[in-house]
Amino acid sequence: MRVRVLDLSGLPHRPIEAHGSRGFSVGAFGISADAHLVAVTLAPGGTIGRHPAVARQLLVVLSGEAEVSGAELVVRRLGPGEAAVWEPGEVHETRSPRGMTAMIVEGDLDIGAPGEQVDPGDV
Fold this sequence. Notes:
Blueprint: E1 14-15, E2 22-31, E3 35-52, E4 56-64, E5 66-69, E6 76-78, E7 83-86, E8 91-96, E9 100-107
Antiparallel strand pairs: 1-2, 2-3, 3-8, 3-9, 4-7, 4-9, 5-6, 5-8
Domain Cupin type-2: 40-98
InterPro entries: Cupin_2, RmlC-like_jellyroll, RmlC_Cupin_sf
Protein name: Cupin domain-containing protein
């Protein structure tokens, strides 16, 4: 069996304008009964408008920079390799002054502290 390599930058993306979003596009690349995975891009100055999370949501910044906020409206800056987690129903927003690519995983996720959960097959 060969490893499959996915080129997330080459996925077909569709623009999203819901919730006042601008410069935002998504490309789906995975789904399970409990979660779905999408690649997202935000153009410079782009926004994913404030909206409630349908399920627990993990946003992982791959390149560029994100400014994220949740229900408390405190803005946090994220760079490559950093992630934000929003709980089901939590109203949140993401902006990017310079542009960003990221991966979003949304669904029935068990997200602990970094390094807290290890797949037994990995040790």
